[in-house]
Amino acid sequence: MSNRAHLDDLGLSTGKKARLHRILHEHGLRNGTALFLPYDQGLEHGPRDFFANPAASDPKYILRLAVEGGFNGVVLQIGLAEKFYWDFAGEVPLVLKLNGKTDIPPDDAPLSPVNASVEDAVRLGADAVGYTLYVGTPAQPADFAALRTVREDAHRFGLPLIVWAYPRGPAIEAKGGKSSFYAVDYAARTASELGADIVKVNFPQPTLRTSVKPEYDADFSAQQAIDAVVRSANRTQVLVSGGERAGDEAMLEKARRSMDAGALGLIFGRNVWQREHDESLRFAARLREILASHSGGTPPRAAQPELIGPFDRAEALSAS
Amino acid sequence: MSNRAHLDDLGLSTGKKARLHRILHEHGLRNGTALFLPYDQGLEHGPRDFFANPAASDPKYILRLAVEGGFNGVVLQIGLAEKFYWDFAGEVPLVLKLNGKTDIPPDDAPLSPVNASVEDAVRLGADAVGYTLYVGTPAQPADFAALRTVREDAHRFGLPLIVWAYPRGPAIEAKGGKSSFYAVDYAARTASELGADIVKVNFPQPTLRTSVKPEYDADFSAQQAIDAVVRSANRTQVLVSGGERAGDEAMLEKARRSMDAGALGLIFGRNVWQREHDESLRFAARLREILASHSGGTPPRAAQPELIGPFDRAEALSAS
Amino acid sequence: MSNRAHLDDLGLSTGKKARLHRILHEHGLRNGTALFLPYDQGLEHGPRDFFANPAASDPKYILRLAVEGGFNGVVLQIGLAEKFYWDFAGEVPLVLKLNGKTDIPPDDAPLSPVNASVEDAVRLGADAVGYTLYVGTPAQPADFAALRTVREDAHRFGLPLIVWAYPRGPAIEAKGGKSSFYAVDYAARTASELGADIVKVNFPQPTLRTSVKPEYDADFSAQQAIDAVVRSANRTQVLVSGGERAGDEAMLEKARRSMDAGALGLIFGRNVWQREHDESLRFAARLREILASHSGGTPPRAAQPELIGPFDRAEALSAS
Amino acid sequence: MSNRAHLDDLGLSTGKKARLHRILHEHGLRNGTALFLPYDQGLEHGPRDFFANPAASDPKYILRLAVEGGFNGVVLQIGLAEKFYWDFAGEVPLVLKLNGKTDIPPDDAPLSPVNASVEDAVRLGADAVGYTLYVGTPAQPADFAALRTVREDAHRFGLPLIVWAYPRGPAIEAKGGKSSFYAVDYAARTASELGADIVKVNFPQPTLRTSVKPEYDADFSAQQAIDAVVRSANRTQVLVSGGERAGDEAMLEKARRSMDAGALGLIFGRNVWQREHDESLRFAARLREILASHSGGTPPRAAQPELIGPFDRAEALSAS
Amino acid sequence: MSNRAHLDDLGLSTGKKARLHRILHEHGLRNGTALFLPYDQGLEHGPRDFFANPAASDPKYILRLAVEGGFNGVVLQIGLAEKFYWDFAGEVPLVLKLNGKTDIPPDDAPLSPVNASVEDAVRLGADAVGYTLYVGTPAQPADFAALRTVREDAHRFGLPLIVWAYPRGPAIEAKGGKSSFYAVDYAARTASELGADIVKVNFPQPTLRTSVKPEYDADFSAQQAIDAVVRSANRTQVLVSGGERAGDEAMLEKARRSMDAGALGLIFGRNVWQREHDESLRFAARLREILASHSGGTPPRAAQPELIGPFDRAEALSAS
To answer: What backbone phi and psi angles, to 5 degrees, belong to A123?
Structure first.
C-alpha cells in the first residue's frame, strides 16, 4: 500500500510524464519509487569528498555504480555529463544539474550560478534537470529569476524539473536554521509554488525551534514533520536527501519515515559512495529494500517487465 | 443602484473586455461584482498559513472551494496553476499571479521577483494576471520596470492586469505606515497611473495620521477614505483585500463600505479558507450577499429583456 | 445518454480545456454540445449571400443573433472581429477564422490564405481559431505548411484549433466528389492526424461512389457513414456543417444523425441567417432541441451534486 | 551471433546513443534489434486502411497493441501523438513522424510536407523522429532542403533520425520501379549520405531489372540484394518495412533474410493491425521470434534486466 | 609507457578531437604530449615582463620562437592574434585566450573580462580557446556565467576549451593560499565539472596547510599532490604552468613530476622567453626531453613514428 499519487494524477505534460515514467518504471525497482545518486560534490565541496574512497573521484566509477546499484538516475554537472555519460548513455537516466558553485566564498547570500541549459540536457538525452534554489537568502530575486528561465525551458522541452530546495542565509540561521521543520517545510512549498515537479529536501528536524514562526514552535514528531512537508509539496514529489555521511541506521530510519510519509524516494550520494565499492552496493540494497516495501501508486499499464520473460509479456497482457 | 461603471465605459480593449466580462458576468453572481479567492500565501508566508485548516494546504481543495463558493476567480502562482488548474479548467476563472516571494529575508527593500509571464497565463487559459507592486520602496525603479513589461504583455495579449498595490518600505513606515489613508490612496493612484485595470488595496485607516502628508492629517471617516481611494483609482477598478484573518463582523463592515464606495469587489483568502470547509462556504455566502446588494453597472446586453427572443435564455438554460 | 467523450478525456492542454469548457459548458445549452454560427460567407461567397435577408449583411445583427439564439460561438474573419466583437465581448465566444478567400478565381488548386494570427485571436479574447484545409488538392504542401504554423501557435497559446476540412481539387472530383463518404472520411482523418482539436465536415453522402477507393464502393447508410467519420476523427471532435441553405427537415435529419453518431455539434450559418430574424431564432431553437437530447459526456465537476455545499450554486445564481 | 554493429560503434552523439539505447535495450526484446509499429496510414492512405479491422481506427487501440506486442516503438503523426501518447507516455517509445501527406493528388512529383518539428518531438518525449524522403523525384531539391533542417535539429537535440527512403517518380518508374534492387539500394545510400541514423526501406526485388543501371542488370538473389542494401547504408541502420498486407509466410521470409543481412529490425504496420487483435499479437510474436534469433551486437554493460529479479541485479553485476 | 588516456577515450566531439589531434599529433613531438607557449603577460602584468629580454616584446619574435622551439601551440590575446598570426598561420597552432585583464586594480574579487569570442577563434583558424576562471572569489557567479557562454560556443564550434583554473580571493588566502594542494585540487576539479577539455594549473604545494580543509591537512608529497590533481581532473587533461621565472632545475623537476602523474603537458612562458633567444630554445629542448620520455596513450592510427625523429623538425625549421 502506498499514499503516493499515480503518475497520471500529477498534472504532467506528455513529455514530463514520458520521462518520469522512464525514471520510475523503466529503471531501478520499476515500482514508482526512486533512488538517485547525486555526484556534484566535486564542485560543491571539492575533491576532499573523495578522500574516503579515492575511486569515487572517477566519474566512470560512479556511473558504473549507478548502473550496478540499480539507481533510478545519476546527477551530474555539465562537464562530467559531456565527457562520461556517452559510455553509459541510456543505461541509467541522467539528471543534468544546471547550476552549482564551490563552497569557497562566504555563504551569507549564496547563489548558485547556472552552468548549463535545459537544451544541453535535451541534447545529452537526460531525463530530468536539477536546479538548486537557496530559499530565504538576500539573493532571492536573482535566484527566482534564474529558476524561472529553467522552468520555462523545462516546460518547453517536456523535461521534469527537480529543485534542490535549500533554506539558507542569515534570516534562516536566525529562525531555527536550515534543517528546522519551519525552514524545510517552507522550502518545499516554495519549490512547489514556483513550478518544481520534484523537490529535494533535507529531513526536517522539528526540535530546532528557536525563533521559528510560532506555528512551528510546538511538539512535532519527526514523522509529523516529514508528513507535513510532503503535504506542503503536494503534487510536487518529494525526494529526501542523505546529506553528509552519518550513521547508517539513523539514515535508514529517516528513509523509512520519508517513504511512510509518501515521499517519491531518496537521493543519497556521499552516504553511498564514501565507502568501498561492495559496501556501497550493500548500502544501496538496503535503501532499495525500503523502497520495495513502499511501491508507488498503481502500476503503469504495461506490467512490470522484470516479472515476465521475453515472450511471456504479450501473452500476459492479452490475457488481461 | 450602483456607482460602479459599466464595463463598456472603462476604456478597455476587446480582449480585456471579453475576459472581464467572463469574470464579472459569466461567473460568481454574474452581476458585475467580483469575489476573488487568492491562494499564494504558501509562497508569501509559507505553509504556516495552512495550520489553522490543514486541508487548505491542498490546492485541489482550494480550487473546489472556489467553484463551490461561487467565486469569480482564483489566484495562483505558476507552479500550482500548472499542476492543478487543468482539473477545473474554465470552471472558475484563473488569475495567474506573475510575481511573488518568501517573507524570510528582511523586508527593507522588498521586491517581488517575476516568476511567470503573461504568455504563461494565456497558455493556461487564465482570464487575468496579477502583479505585486511595492509602492514607495527603495527598489521602486526595478519594480516599475518589471511592471512595465507585464503591462506591455498584458496589453499585447488582451489580459486584464490586476495590481496588488502594497505601500512598503522604511519611508512608508515613517509616514503613517502601510495601512494609512495616505499610503493606500497613493498606492491605488500609482497602480492606476501605471496601467492597472484592477487594483487590489488594503482597507485604508484614516486614523493612522502620524507624519503623513498634511492633506491626510485631518478627520476622515473610514467611508470617506475608501470613497477617496476608489475615486483616485477611477477607471481602474478596486478590489479590497481581507488581509490577515480578523473578526468576521469587522471584515464584513469593511466589505460593505468598500462596495458602497463603488469598489468592484473583494479578494478574501485567509479569512475564507483558514476555517473548516462549511464555515468557509458560509462566510463566502455572507460576502456574496454584500455583493448581491451592490450589483454593478448596467447588465450586459444578453441579459437585457428586449434582447431576449421567443426562446427565453434563462429558462432554456435552467431547464438543462 | 451520449457517446461523446468527456472533456477530460480528449488529450487537451490546460488552456485548450479551459477555453473549450467555456464554449461547451458556459455558453449555449451548457451540456457539452455546441452550436456555432459561422459568418465568413461575405468573404467566401461575397455579399450575394445576404440578398435573402439584407439585415444579415450587418455583423452587429449577426452577433446579436448569436447571443439571442444561445449559440456556443460565432465565427468571424479578422476585420469584422476587430470592429464588432468589442460590442459583445465575452457574451458569446469568438472563433477567429484565420484564413479565407474569395470564390472568384478558378478552384482547381484552392488555397486559403492566412489573414490573421493566433496571437490576433488571443488579443481579441477569442476562445478558438479556425483554419480551412483543402484536403487532396495540388496545393497540399503549402496548405499543410500553413496549418502547421497555426497548430504550433494554437498549442503555444492554448487555443483550440478548429479545422474546416474540405476535400477539393480535380483528384477529389475524379474520385466521387467532395461530399462522398470517401472524401469526407479522409478529410476528417487528415485534420485529426495534423492536430485539429475540432474538425468541421460536411455530411457524407455514401451514394456518391463513382471511382472512389474500393473500400467505399459498397452499400453504406447515411448513419453508417457519419458514424465512421466520427470514429475516424476520434478524439478530434466533429462539427457537421449545414452548407448551402436546403430544406429544413433534411437539415434537421442530418443534424440528428450527426449527434447520434457522437458529433460534438453543428455549425449552421446560411441555414440560420438567410431568413427573417424570428425565423432564424426558431430554426436555431429546433437545432438546440436536437443538441439538448444529446448532452455530452459527464457534466463538469461544478455541476456534480456531491460538490455542491450548503449553499446551492444554481439556486444562488438563479436568485440573483 | 550477429553481424550487427554495437551501439558504441555507430558514430553517435550522447543523446542519440541514449535514446537508441532506450529503444533497443530498454524495450521490446532488449537485445539490440527493433520491431516498430507504424501508424500514419490514416493520413497516407486514409481511413480505408482500417476497414479490415475497424478497431484499428482508434489510436488508443494501436498504442495498447504496441505495448502488449512488445514493440520497440510506435510511429505517429503530430495530431495523434498530442492527443494519445500521454496515456502511454514512456511505456513504448514514440517515433514522431515529422512529414506526411494524403495520397489523393497525383504522385508524379511527390513531396511530403513537414507537419511537425524536432522540438515537438522533444516536447512530447519522443525517442526518435521520422522523415519520408522521396528519392529520385523532380521535387528532390525541396525534399533535401527540408530533410536538412530536420537533420540539423535532430543533431542539435540529440534525437535519432529515421528516414523513410522511398524511391519515387517517373524516372524511378522508368528504371525498374520503386522496389527494384537498384532503386532501394540507391535510396538507402542516399539516406545514409544525407545523415539518417536509421533508414527504412522496402525489401529489394532484384528481378525487377528492366532499364535499371547495368550494374544491377545481373542475377542477384534476394539475399544478395538485401545484403548489399545493408552494406550501402553502413553505419546507418536498416529497417525493412512490410508494406501492404501480403502473405504471412512471404513476409516472414523477407524478415528473416533482412535480419540475416544485418538489418536492425522490422517496421510492420498494416501486416500487424489489419487483422483481429489476438491475430495481431500472434503475428507480432512470430516477428519477435525472428528478432530473438538475431540478437544485436554485444549487450550493453548492464545485463538484460528481464533475466534478473528486483534484487538480484546488483549482486549479479558486482560479481562481474 | 604512459598513464595518459588516448584521445579516443576523452569523450570528445568530432571537431574537438580533430583539433586536439592537430595539436598533439601534428605538432611538437607528435607523441600526444603538449608544450604550450603562453604570451598574454603583456596584458596580465604589463611590458615589465619584457625587460629581461626586450626582443620578447615583439609578438613576431615569440611566434617564430614557438615554431622554432617545436611548441604545440602559442597563446595570444585577440589583438596580437589579429595582427601577427597571419604570418605563421597554421605553422604553429593558435590558442586564442578569450579573457584577460591588467593587474593594476586590487585583486580581492578578480574577474577576467571576455575580450574575444569563440567565433573570433574560428575565424582566425585557432585550434583551441583559453579562459581564465578565478576559482573561489566573490565574483564566482559572474565568472561561471561567462565561462558557460564560452563552453557553449566551444561545443557548438567544436573547439577544445582550455581553462586557466586559478584559485583566488580572500577565502582562498585564508585557507592555505592559491598554491596549496587544497586550492589547486579544487580548482582543477571545478574546471572539469564545468566543462574544460584541458585545465591549466599551477603545481600544487602540499606544505601550505594552514587552515585548509582537514582532508588536506596531512603529510602529502609533491608527487602525491600532483597525482591527485590529475585524478581530480580526470578526462579533463592537465597542463602544468611554469608561473614566474624560477630556478631551472626546480622547474624541470616539477615538469617531470607532472608528466609522471599523467599530465598532458606543460605551459611555460616567462621561463622560456625571459632569456636570450638561443637560451630559450635550449630550455625548451630540455622540456621536450621530458615530454619525449612520457609519450601519450597509444599513437593515433595514422602516425608513423619512423617518419620523423623527436628533434628533427625543430632543426629543420631553425635552419630555414
So the answer is: -60, -35
* Strands of chain C, DSSP E: 34-38, 73-76, 94-97, 128-135, 161-167, 198-202, 237-241, 265-267
Give the residue from chain C lying closest to B94, CA to CA: C18
Per-residue pLDDT of chain D in tens (320 residues, 90 and over written 9): 467 889 999 999 999 999 999 999 999 999 999 999 999 999 999 999 999 999 999 999 999 999 999 999 999 999 999 999 999 999 999 999 999 999 999 888 899 999 999 999 999 999 999 999 999 999 999 999 999 999 999 999 999 999 999 999 999 999 999 999 999 999 999 999 999 999 999 999 999 999 999 999 999 999 999 999 999 999 999 999 987 877 999 999 999 999 999 999 999 999 999 999 999 999 999 999 999 998 755 455 444 343 333 333 344 444 43
Residue pair A317/A303 in contact by the 8 Å Cβ criterion: yes
β-pair type (C34-38, C265-267):
parallel
Chain D residues at the C interface, defined by Cβ less than 8 Å, are 40, 42-43, 46-48, 50-51, 54, 57-59, 77-80, 82-84, 86-87, 100-102, 104-106, 111, 113-117, 120
Alpha helix (H) residue ranges in chain A: 14-25, 41-44, 59-68, 78-84, 118-123, 140-157, 170-173, 181-193, 222-233, 248-260, 270-273, 277-292, 312-319
One-letter amino acid for residue E30 of the chain: R
Does chain E reach chain B with at least 3 CB pairs under 8 Å?
Answer: no
* Residue B16: half-sphere exposure toward Cβ, Cα within 13 Å: 25
Task: Tell me the C-alpha distance between E275 and E289, whole Å.
Answer: 19
Establish whether C83 is a catalytic residue. no
Cβ(B154)–Cβ(B160) below 8 Å: yes
Record the cell numbers describing residue B286, joined without a space: 455572507
Say which amino acid occupies E201. V
Considering the entire predicted model, what is its pTM? 0.93
Chains that touch B (3 or more CB pairs under 8 A): A, C
- CA–CA dist E222, E233 (Å, integer): 17
Pairwise CB contact (< 8 Å): D42 & C195: no
As beta bridge partners, residue D34 has D265
Chain C, nearest residue to D115 by Cα: C148
Residue E266's Cβ-side half-sphere holds a number of Cα atoms within 13 Å equal to 33
Cβ contact D318–A281 (<8 Å): yes
Q: Looking at the complex, report in whole angstroms how far the Cα of residue C159 sits from the nearest Cα belonging to chain B.
A: 8
Question: Phi/psi at B252 (nearest 5 deg)?
Answer: -65, -35
Q: From the centroid of its chain, how far is CA E108? A: 24
ipTM of the complex model: 0.91
> Residue D127's closest CA among A90, A24, A86?
A90
Question: Residue A133's beta-bridge partner residues?
Answer: A165
> Hey, what's the torsion of the CAs at C204, C209, C214, C215, to 10 degrees?
30
Q: How many residues would you count in chain D? A: 320
Nearest residue to B196 via CA among B167, B159, B231: B159
For chain C, list the contacting chains (3+ Cβ pairs, <8 Å).
Answer: B, D
CB C265, CB C36: distance < 8 Å: yes
Q: Which residues pair with D163 in a beta bridge?
A: D131, D199
Contact C42, C101 (CB under 8 A): no
Long-range CB pairs of D243-246 (<8 Å, 24+ gap) are D243/D202, D243/D270, D243/D271, D244/D270, D245/D52, D245/D270, D245/D271, D245/D274, D246/D271
Q: What whole-number distance in Å separates Cα of residue A167 and Cα of residue A110?
A: 10
DSSP class per residue in A13-44: -HHHHHHHHHHHHSSTTSSS-EEEEE--HHHH
Nearest to D7 by CA among D18, A82, D234: D18
